[in-house]
Write a structure and sequence with these properties.
Elements lengths: L16 E4 L5 E5 L4 E5 L5 E5 L7 E6 L5 E6 L4 E5 L4
Antiparallel strand pairs: 1-2, 2-3, 3-4, 5-6, 6-7
Length: about 90
């Protein structure tokens, strides 16, 4: 890591948790109550679900086939999401 460089910065919004998609081209990000999927090269948000939880998201995972996301939050819920229709 001593010679690595920053490839992308995700700013202006909190990032509580993130997880790479299996193809490595996107990251799924959980923040206060929202989920977003972001392209790692351009930084463009490709999908977003505002108000996904009632409290802060503390965990996020992407299924090995990339078709589903799972989130868990301090509101006591864990939810499964279709990644294509998020």
């Amino acid at each position: 890591l001593a010679t690595s460089r920053t490839r992308q910065r995700f700013e202006n919004r909190p990032v509580n948790v993130l997880c790479f998609t299996p193809d490595g081209h996107r990251v799924a990000i959980g923040d206060e109550k929202d989920i977003r999927v972001v392209d790692v090269v351009s930084g463009a948000v490709s999908r977003e679900r505002k108000g996904a939880h009632d409290m802060r998201i503390f965990d996020i995972a992407v299924a090995p086939d990339g078709r589903q996301l799972a989130t868990a939050a301090f509101d006591g819920t864990a939810r499964l999401w279709d990644a294509e229709t998020l």
